[in-house]
Specification:
105 residues; alpha+beta; three-stranded mixed beta sheet; 3 helices
Length: 105
């Protein structure tokens, strides 16, 4: 996992009376460097969709490590055999992001 990411909050979602959707967007391999990630986020077409559909978008980023040079999300068990379960390292980090967003802690 990387230590950075982006969140997009549509204007309508700034109103606490509005119930908005939430979407996590997981980038592809080699899209984790900040400059590339930002280009992906801005030019992918997701932001207008989010704005038009009251959808908060979270873009967590991975990073390059020796066992995952391309900075892919774990789909081949480089973080361990639980990678595709709720006990997987990346899944737990994403769950923590969700918890912080919902409960503020």
């Amino acid at each position: 996992m990387g230590t950075r990411g982006y969140i997009y909050i549509p204007k309508v979602c700034e109103d606490p009376q509005i119930l908005c959707h939430l979407h996590f967007n997981f980038h592809g391999c080699n899209e984790w460097p900040l400059d590339i990630a930002l280009q992906y986020i801005v030019h992918s077409g997701f932001l207008p969709i989010a704005e038009n559909n009251a959808m908060v978008m979270i873009f967590p980023l991975t990073t390059s490590i020796p066992t995952n040079y391309n900075g892919c999300w774990d789909f081949f068990s480089y973080t361990g055999s639980n990678f595709a379960t709720k006990h997987g390292q990346q899944i737990q980090v994403v769950h923590g992001m969700l918890q912080r967003l919902i409960y503020g802690s």
